[in-house]
Amino acid sequence: MKAIQAVRGVRDILPPETAKWRRMEAVAREVFELAGYREIRLPLFERTELFARGIGETTDIVEKEMYTFHDRSGESVTLRPEATASLLRAYIEHGLHVQPKPVRLYTMGPMFRYERPQAGRYRQFHQANVEAVGEVHPALDAEVIGMLLEFFRALGLADRVTLHVNSIGDGQCRPAFRRGLLEYLTQHLSSLCEECRARVERNPLRVLDCKNPGCQPTIERAPSILDALCAACASHFDQVQAALGALGISYRITPRMVRGLDYYVRTTFEMVAGELGAQNAVAGGGRYDGLIAALGGPPDPGIGFAIGMERVSLLLQDVADPAAPLALLIPLGDAALHRLLALARSVRRQGLAVDVAYGARRLRSELDRANRLAIPYAVIVGDLELAKGHAQLREMAEGSQRELPLDEVPGELSRLAERRRRG
Ligand code: AMP
């Protein structure tokens, strides 16, 4: 019978790659919690209208990438394509705005977008998301960006990513910029790709984001949003840059960076890892003052970012799998098996990982298994040892073996584990 495969664009994360994921998640939690963020866990699906309202009707995500279906009661629901809309829905629904501001929250988990799968781009992918809600001060923007950098630094990746920042203005200055841009793009329609031509009327800012090489000359000569900022947005951006400077953070100003979600205002930013090729954005975020009100909540401002975990995983070296067993307990016979099952339980209660063989294979093939699993020690008990209450402890790398009382095995394994930890 033909075996069933996973859905296109959806991948399994197998060991030992899972060890990298645990490291990324542990580092994210540590960095975020040190900065006062607390974890929130959100549902994987929401009412469709939340994303339509929250992300913007004319974005690629809402127009063509959502996994939307009707549940059995006929309600339209959508697998979340991003976390901000859900998090703000929860913020409003549970009245979190009464807490001292900014309310700092983070979450992690899978997102779903029907995109064309390629290296670094999947239909189910994972993000770590951070949101700071209720504070408009530009120093917060710099602090949030600084925390994102700390995440990369803690993983040893700081030198391999570049920070891009921009301001995309607000409801005061962006409409006039949009009109000017629309006029410019309309004059240059013939030099734009088909997708950009379709975007010009609906969402001209998104044209600036196009990666098609043919569009680049037109995009490079387009008016810059930074020339069109109103005084309040320009001052906000100046202060963000001053605070970034105070933190010693280097960055590039990239006026074409508008990002794919409509809700952003003022500060937007992205972390890029050039070595990843076409899908090189490893994290992105920005300010979304006004979004909470648009979702029916109080007029609270906010800023946040999302880290693309698959792409960070691509940058990371394999890390040692902490779940790998320390020893394989090998019985030679049923009586020894029963003794070793009990021994395994007491060793595990000491917090050490061990694996038990069942005695059905020859000793040589069990030792071979220990080698292939990179298990450093074997504890071998045959009838002779059992009669004496002893075991053979074998160091796999050297092939050396010594006998010791069975009762002393847990203590000896602990000692060996400690020695390995210290290197
Ligand atoms: P966004 O929510 O679009 O701002 O994306 C934030 C980050 O999520 C990006 O910088 C990517 O690292 C990651 N990301 C977005 N879409 C995908 C995808 N389809 N597959 C893998 N990672 C993604």
Produce the secondary structure layout.
Elements: H1 17-34, E1 38-39, E2 45-47, H2 48-55, H3 60-65, E3 67-70, E4 76-79, H4 84-93, E5 103-112, E6 124-133, H5 138-154, E7 162-167, H6 174-187, H7 194-202, H8 204-207, H9 216-220, H10 231-246, E8 252-253, E9 265-272, E10 281-287, H11 291-294, E11 302-308, H12 309-315, E12 327-331, H13 334-349, E13 354-356, H14 363-372, E14 377-381, H15 383-388, E15 390-395, E16 400-405, H16 409-422
Parallel strand pairs: 1-5, 7-8, 12-13, 12-14
Antiparallel strand pairs: 2-4, 3-4, 5-6, 6-11, 7-9, 9-10, 10-11, 14-15, 15-16
Helix pairs in contact: 1-5, 2-4, 5-10
This protein binds adenosine monophosphate.
Radius of gyration: 28 Å
Ligands present: adenosine monophosphate
Instruction: Please bin the fraction of helical residues.
Output: 25-40%
Instruction: Tell me, rounded to a whole number, the average pLDDT.
Output: 94
**How many strands?**
16
Outline, from the CA principal axes?
Answer: elongated
Number of helices: 16
Give me the side-by-side strand order of the main sheet: 1-5-6-11-10-9-7-8
- How far apart the termini lie comes to 49 Å
Give a structural overview.
The protein is α+β, with helices and mostly antiparallel strands. The chain is 39% helix and 21% strand. The chain has 16 helices and 16 strands. It has helices at residues 17-34, 48-55, 60-65, 84-93, 138-154, 174-187, 194-202, 204-207, 216-220, 231-246, 291-294, 309-315, 334-349, 363-372, 383-388, 409-422, and strands at residues 38-39, 45-47, 67-70, 76-79, 103-112, 124-133, 162-167, 252-253, 265-272, 281-287, 302-308, 327-331, 354-356, 377-381, 390-395, 400-405. Bound molecules: adenosine monophosphate (AMP). Residues 82, 113, 115, 120-122, 125, 127, 260, 281-284, 306, 308, 310-311 line the site of adenosine monophosphate.
